[in-house]
Amino acid sequence: MRLDVEDLRLFLCVADAGSITAGARQAHLALSSASGRLSAIEADAGTALLHRHARGISLTEAGATLAHHARLILQQRSQLREELQSFADGTRGTLHLYANTAALTTFLPERLGPWLAERPRLRVELLERTSADIVSAIAAGHAEAGIVSDAADAGTLHRQPVADDPLVVLLPASHHLAAARELTFADVLGEAFVALGDDNALQTHINEYAGAAGRPLNVRIRMKTFDGLCALVGHGVGIGIVPQVVARQHRRKTRTVAVPLGDAWARRRLCVCFAAWSALSPSMRSLLQHLGATPTEP
């Protein structure tokens, strides 16, 4: 059968009204037009769908079957429209957000909660990468947006600061450098380190600067989490480099001291990064604004 949505809607109007005249009026069609379409529907079905009486119509068994399926089709069409609209307005689907280590561990957990709670049908997949890798992915069109350090060169991409995120040197309280007001990376390169895993984006970033200085880190042990790193530093196993907010969270429990790292690359801010505001999905635009971004285009 070659029925379209308007045919189904007309047939239901007539069936519910019990009259072709009344049904045509509900469907906003002229009587002649409605009668012609009903005849075409019956011809296409190859069987009578309506009993026509002097006072109106009643459905044949075939007509009742068509009415039943027509209701289901129109209901499903309405549900489909609503579901697709939820994708279009950003309240449903899967959002892929790239972020560096600091953003994933210290910035996003608190910020994401309220926003996600208001969107129960939306999922967010967080992808940890170095800031440089995130910038490259956005520039190549492989990622919509990400959260990066402002130490990374973003080229022509838009970058908006949303939080301070300086790195500090974490030291045991008894360490000979614990009283320093500020340290440079060169000051500590000869020390034994407690590091994060090589697959960690922040650790990769630190390793790159050590390699550039020609003095690879003297790593005694690698830990999976900041918790583990801070605990071992507190026990005097070595020193570490962590975001300032992490050091503050652990200083009392681990009896550690945080000294600012004075290198320019360590005085970081977290920034949202994207190519063009108008090219972002509605859900991504909503999230970035929630995190503190400002639309760059009308």
UniProtKB/TrEMBL annotation:
Chain ranges of the HTH lysR-type domain: 3-60
For this UniProt entry, which residues form the secretion signal? Answer: none
The record's listing under Gene3D superfamilies reads: Periplasmic binding protein-like II, Winged helix-like DNA-binding domain superfamily/Winged helix DNA-binding domain
The cross-references to InterPro entries, in alphabetical order and at most eight, read: HTH-type_LysR_regulators (IPR050950), LysR_HTH_N (IPR000847), LysR_subst-bd (IPR005119), WH-like_DNA-bd_sf (IPR036388), WH_DNA-bd_sf (IPR036390)
Transmembrane ranges, per UniProt, are none
Q: Tell me the SUPFAM superfamilies matching this sequence.
A: Periplasmic binding protein-like II, Winged helix' DNA-binding domain
Q: What is this protein called?
A: LysR family transcriptional regulator
Organism equals: Streptomyces spinosisporus
Q: Which taxonomic lineage is given here? A: Bacteria, Bacillati, Actinomycetota, Actinomycetes, Kitasatosporales
